[in-house]
UniProtKB/TrEMBL annotation:
<dbReference type="GO" id="GO:0006209">
    <property type="term" value="P:cytosine catabolic process"/>
</dbReference>
<dbReference type="Pfam" id="PF07969">
    <property type="entry name" value="Amidohydro_3"/>
</dbReference>
<dbReference type="GO" id="GO:0004131">
    <property type="term" value="F:cytosine deaminase activity"/>
</dbReference>
<keyword id="KW-0378">Hydrolase</keyword>
<feature type="domain" description="Amidohydrolase 3">
    <location>
        <begin position="40"/>
        <end position="400"/>
    </location>
</feature>
<dbReference type="InterPro" id="IPR032466">
    <property type="entry name" value="Metal_Hydrolase"/>
</dbReference>
<dbReference type="GO" id="GO:0046872">
    <property type="term" value="F:metal ion binding"/>
</dbReference>
<dbReference type="InterPro" id="IPR011059">
    <property type="entry name" value="Metal-dep_hydrolase_composite"/>
</dbReference>
<dbReference type="InterPro" id="IPR052349">
    <property type="entry name" value="Metallo-hydrolase_Enzymes"/>
</dbReference>
<dbReference type="GO" id="GO:0035888">
    <property type="term" value="F:isoguanine deaminase activity"/>
</dbReference>
<keyword id="KW-0479">Metal-binding</keyword>
<dbReference type="InterPro" id="IPR013108">
    <property type="entry name" value="Amidohydro_3"/>
</dbReference>
<protein>
    <submittedName>
        <fullName>Cytosine deaminase</fullName>
    </submittedName>
</protein>
């Protein structure tokens, strides 16, 4: 007797007709034709059942603050940082918690059940950290929130920030952040990478730095980050976020850099939506894409997870909480359009990002947490193309959100009465 059986599921690896049995919040079996009874049975009807989406790079302290205290007129990263600096002194814990909880509601409706959020520690009041630590506890029953101590204004630019970052870690923020390309000099950037990696090594923490988020091909802090990762024995625990300068780097240099990253078992977290919006701003035409080298990194065996970064905040006026929007942009911006490419990018918004966050019990295997999403699509490539409705979002075997399938009614003589967008993929293309 199981608590739940999902019948006739298609899995991301292509297996069809699978039944998924759940007992006490854990996946007990995945195989065709499970005959046992269950308290609840859900017929997936051949649709794709996947582990939940994971966002490895987000700013939950800034989300939904668009328009406060004013809009970003130039649309650039630097005006965004300046604008956030204007807003920061006025932030209250109550408003931060309110916005974060509202965002988490949206995330759940999209099947996004784990988020790594940077939390700005540049204001020594640390109201951001206080608020998000409270949010982490409040949402824990349905969403895993992991927090990064992030010195938005630079670790060495203002007095008091080094101390505030340490205090945020003491309060329970669990990942060490940084922003070496925003320090005053290249040397300060390199020093910050070393100091922050040392803190992570001393405390046994992970590292995730905003790194080289610029079009300057000589911004090479990723090299320092890889070297310090090896030096401090942090292999497998370090991620470089953005890495957009790599787009513009010399090919010969990159041919040396990527093996260094692979040696350090560094992960990369590109953020295709915001990178396409913010990079290349100093170009006229041709305009660079400003997205890091995802296909080359995947080829080198470097773990790549894709993040959203922002939803409706000083840097980005768009965003939906849907990691499939992120993967959809990545398909276009990287020209990764083959069936295998799309499968790899689907992994980048699910399993790869779960590995970056170190999530335990994540996955669609017996013994994993019974956390799953049923999508109105039949395979990962179709999921990215359609960004379809989440028919069911399941956590620990319980449905926590559901959306009716999208079906349009047609009133045309001689044509079908209904259109199901998920039924359009030509058979020859699967
Ligand atoms: Zn960011």
């Amino acid at each position: 007797m199981f608590d739940l059986i999902i019948r006739n599921a298609t899995l991301p690896d292509g297996r069809t007709g699978q039944d998924i049995a759940v007992r006490e919040g854990t996946i007990a079996a995945i195989e065709p034709g499970i005959t046992a009874d269950a308290g609840e049975v859900i017929d997936a009807g051949g649709l794709l059942v996947t582990p939940p989406f994971v966002d490895p790079h987000f700013h939950m302290d800034a989300t939904l603050s668009l328009g406060l205290p004013r809009m970003n007129r130039s649309g650039t990263l630097l005006e965004g940082i300046a604008l956030w600096g204007e807003l920061r002194p006025t932030l209250t814990k109550e408003a931060l918690i309110d916005r974060a909880l509202r965002y988490c509601d949206l995330a759940i409706s999209k099947g996004l059940l784990a988020v790594r959020s940077h939390v700005d520690v540049s204001d020594p009041r640390l109201v951001t950290a206080e608020a998000l630590l409270e949010v982490r506890d409040l949402v824990a029953p349905y969403l895993q929130l992991q927090l990064v101590a992030f010195p938005q204004d630079g670790y060495y630019r203002e007095p008091g920030i080094t101390e505030a970052l340490t205090r945020a870690l003491d309060m329970g923020v669990e990942v060490v952040g940084g922003i070496p390309h925003f320090e005053r000099t290249m040397e300060d950037g390199a020093r910050s990478v070393e100091a922050l990696c040392r803190i992570a090594a001393d405390r046994g923490l992970r590292v995730d730095m905003h790194c080289d988020e610029t079009d300057d091909p000589l911004s090479r802090h990723v090299e320092t980050l890889a070297a310090q990762t090896v030096r401090f024995g942090l292999q497998g625990r370090v991620a470089g976020s953005h890495l957009t300068s790599m787009h513009s780097m010399d090919n010969y240099y990159v041919s040396k850099l990527l093996p260094l990253m692979a040696e350090a078992q560094m992960a990369a977290i590109p953020n295709p939506l915001i990178n396409m919006m913010l990079q290349g701003r100093h170009d006229t035409y041709p305009k660079r894409r400003g997205l890091t080298r995802i296909p080359q990194m995947l080829e080198m065996g470097i773990n790549v997870g894709l993040g959203q970064d922002c939803v409706m905040d000083p840097w980005y006026s768009m965003g939906t909480g849907d990691l499939l929007d992120v993967a959809h942009m990545a398909v276009h911006a990287t020209q990764m359009g083959s069936i295998d490419d799309k499968r790899a990018l689907f992994d980048a918004v699910t399993v790869n990002s779960a590995r970056i966050m170190g999530l335990e019990g994540y996955g669609l295997e017996p013994g994993c947490h019974a956390d799953m999403v049923i999508l109105q699509a039949t395979d990962p490539g179709e999921a990215i193309r359609l960004r379809p409705n989440r028919i069911k979002v399941i956590r620990r075997g319980k449905t926590i959100a559901e959306t009716a399938p999208e079906v349009s009614t047609l009133m045309l003589d001689g044509r079908p009465g209904q259109v199901d967008p998920a039924a359009y993929a030509p058979k020859a293309a699967q």
